[in-house]
Amino acid sequence: MVVVQFPNAALWLWVVTIVLRRIVETDTAARVLLEWAGLATLGWWSLDELVRGVNPWRRSLGLMGCIIVLAGVVPQLGH
Fold it and tell me: How far apart are CA 45 and CA 65, in angstroms?
């Protein structure tokens, strides 16, 4: 059963957005762009895992990722 594997492109891009968000100032257009890009890349990964996950554990991770993305999108829509 595969539980952990080397991250794919979507997860690497998500990690890059996290690192860049620590560098970029809050309340700037660049920060908002990074937040949306992070949600998009995490959404890409989580939908891929949810649909094509190799086992129930991976599909569960995909579902949790989708929930996290939805929880992140709702507050962003208020801006």
Answer: 8
